[in-house]
Records
---
Amino acid sequence: MIDLSPHVRPGIGVWWSQAGAEPTPLVHALLDQADDLGPVRAFCGLSWDQRLVRELPSSVSLSSYGALGQLRRLSRAGRLNVVPCHYSALPRLFAEGALPADVGFVQVSPPDAAGTCSLGIGVDYIADAIAHTPVLIAEINRRMPVTAGAARLPLSRFAAVVETDRPVGEAPARPADDVEQAIARNVAELIEDGDTLQMGVGSLPAAVLDRLAGHQDLGFHTGMISDGVLSLVEKGVLTGARKEIDPGLIVTGAALGSSELYERLGDLPVEFRPASYTHSPATLSRLRSLVSINSAIEVDLTGQVCSERRRGDYIGAIGGQVDFSRAAALTGARSIITLRATSGENSTIVPTPTGPVTTGRSDVDIVVTEHGAAHLRGCDLPERTRRLTAIAGPEHRDALSRAAIQ
């Protein structure tokens, strides 16, 4: 095990890569040595590390931009400090010292002949944070693929390294259920040939991608890609030929999928860029064909979106939703918000928000449930209410109509 004591001192701040690029051996070393290292402030994004959740020492104060993956459990236990910010703000927050950035843990590819390493599938906020982090410690994983688009790191940049040969973290796989398939069908009908898509990862985005096989010249500019891009590239659908910038390229900050996706990244026209590019308003404003597809926990009868909390529990994030939704609605093609019409016995279309408003109603063009699509662009408030009520669960529509009258 690597000894962190020469680099991690009491009171300092540590960040590490997220999702499939999470440097698990380094994180576990921090957990094992935390009591001896003294109080540490830490920051990470999406994590699937169950040990991090089960064994987070009291001496480690953990923050994140949202409660994603296993971090939801930490949030429910009161052990996660959520920083409510747009994903596009992360580079600035690191630059200003608002987020922990004394030491960074990264997972990288083996060095090439010039002695430089690729950040592989996890460029996103890491590439921006590195510039403001004096000490980097690397897990050099023999199985981390080399990716294009971001600057490589020389071995001399690392204060210490640990070498591994382990599978790169894969996304938990779950097939889309009937409700998600219905939502995906409704979303696919809104996509036009030549659109440039932004969407997240998971069973619903995967189901949407599956239904786009008949389209032509679609592009991709997003924060994270998954396996769904493979088949669309193979079928000649995802060409990026009509993109206003980066034509022919899939642009992303990270990948989260299967080992097949990781192994084939070198064969795909994909470039990994930092958040300061993928989520930048200046970048997104140039994509006139941009269609954003994001999910919600609930939407109120005027179109306001909550994607962070449900019944008091933090289970989501602001993330890049506002960055992409605003760009798609203002300078792009269209902004789409998806959600199930019900959660348990409760309607997700609500008279008033029960949680914080993540995305304002002015940045939402279309809301989609399994019951249809509510086109909101240009509609006044009464018409928005009527259209949103129409795509709510049938058992809740009368109550929503009565609430709208009051």
---
Amino acid sequence: MADSKLLFHLSDIHFGLEDNRALDWVMQEIAEQRPDAVAITGDLTMRARHREFAAATHWIKALDVPVTVEIGNHDMPYFNPVERFLDPYRRMRSIADKVEREIDLPGLAIVPLKTVRRWQPRLNWSKGWITDPALERCLTAIDALPPGTQVLVTAHHPLREVGTQGTALTRHGLKALTELAKRPVLAVISGHVHDAFDIMEETAEGQVRMIGAGTLSKRVRSTPPSFNELRWDGKHLTVKVRNLDDVDTRDMMIDDVPEDAMPPREPGEPVAPVNQVPRTDPPVH
């Protein structure tokens, strides 16, 4: 169809523990298929080191298609608390035009929603937190779109609240989902858990579709490295999980978002203190 859109959804590349075979394959797929846009939903690096960002930004700048990049919890300065608080995006300046970028395509927009914070009033800063200003920026951007435009919202953390104080994935996630349910949002696409998923979330205002991408790093959880191929034909959004092992899409998808939402550690990987920086389409609105 003339208005069909092809989008690639990548996440959790984790330069420092990246899977170069998977990255070479994805780069070739982008060059050959020429998607309308690429959305990378955070965790470009493993420990936000300068050399990791240098490798990540070099790879991203080589993608000759429109790209938007979300910030992940691993992308906040890890060993430099002064920089984390005063200038947390400094190491991404070479791709500043892509960070939290809105991409407007005919009839379809990609709008960012920040889920990371420089600090949180709880011990585990790796989990998500949506501030009122971050949500307001996202909603304002959606409300300013031309009538009839459908939206994909990009975030690093899944927005699901699991209902307990200690294991909540994203604080104020339910509030955000409820507001997004009032708007023409096709789905919220995210990363963080290192496995793909495609689930519907109920809110008081209706359903919101949540789509997660797996990892392109060596920090795999239960499925091999992968990315999502999204197709929008003007009526339906379909998801195909692409992976080098040729595993079927359905077998690549987990049934639900785990409460801990954390990938396993690599053998020998140090454990940082937690307070250190560490299927049916919904109706078209």
---
Amino acid sequence: MTNALSFNRRSTLSLLAGGAVAGLAGLPAEARSEDWAALGEDVKSEFQWAWRHYVERAWGRDEINPVSGTSRSFFIEGHDLGLSLVEALDTLWIMELDEEFQAGVDWVKANLDFDVDGYAQVFETNIRLVGGLLSAHLACGDPALLDKARDLADRLMKAFDASPHGLPYRYVNLKTGAVRDPETNLAEIGTYATEFGVLGQLTGDDRYYAAAKRAMKHALDMRSDLGLMAANLHAETGLFTSRNASIDVYADSFYEYLWDSWELFGDADMKRWAGECLGAMVAHQGKRYDGRLWFPMVDYETGAVTGTSQTVLGGYLAGLLGQAGMKAEGDDFLASYSAMQERYTIIPESIEVTTATPRGKRTGLRPEFADACLNLWQHDRDERYRALTAVHYRNMKATSKATYGYTSLADITTRPMTQGDNCPGYWWSEQMKYYFLMFAAPKRVDLSRLVLSTEANVLRGFVRD
């Protein structure tokens, strides 16, 4: 495997030579005079405004459709689990919207029941509901929230137990424990360690973290001589089912949780694996097109490029590289997305990296660019990252604000942009929290200790009265 530290010294020189880091240089004049506290208050006001519409039109439902004022289920059709409500809880608490927070907690305690005869996607259920309940519990200390998180995690554990390799199936029946869909991917087998680890700490039960780490280790043990993993694998055979190494679709949060497990639990194995994997990515996936750094899919054994698309999801990697000590590379990659934001106002959902053009017209209120900016900003408080995030926020506000909240977009190429009709649950947990943390200097978070899950649930760093 590549030694991450020695590689970092070499790669920094080569990436800087490419000149893309210069794309982040210099602070816009308007940023130097920005009233960050006022912008933070604006974020809070918009969040509260959208929340009121959710309460009025979709209370307890998974997601609101902000154009029509209707709602939809996310996990199990016809049986809502309060997804947006749970996702919003710790954001409400951080924003000191205490009345709204308590109303949400009361709904969870009175209505949220996971004894449902239906199949839920294990990965999504963990990052959204287990994580949301845990962060809300850490915020207020209510033991009922921890009890519900544990009940749900126990149901998800059936998906791990059913596999001979400890690789969770994609779906589990929340009531019966039956599983289905063994054809899975790195993200869906490797995005549990932070939530399961915190749950284990709070309950004194190490089964959860052990199961999460075992699944990750199985894939890591199959890395090629290049240090890369294929993105797709099978829960029953334990083998890769593709040859594509990906940093975004099918894989992204696997890599986040290696580093996060080191930060949260001091797990040296996870830190070593994170460094090795990130080093291999930069060495064998980082490619330049028109001077911009991208990380297209490559064959995990040969390093040959197998596809030239990059999704907006990949933006997280810029921040993760910064967290892991590869800040020059992180800045370099962020500059590629910054250029797309400047050119298209809203970063396209999928990008053809050879031409830096959109591969589609729709986008889903994506938070990854703001996520990366927050992680890089936490490193050195460089105002460039706040300035880029302020643009991201204002562009979202200008294009996605609808009658009853904020919505995804159906076409980013029209002027004005054509709105869709759905507010994804992660909007409540992710970008609005990122914006507020960066702009508002929140009293209830210690930024120096902050650790967020891939869904931006606060797993460390709350400051309680």
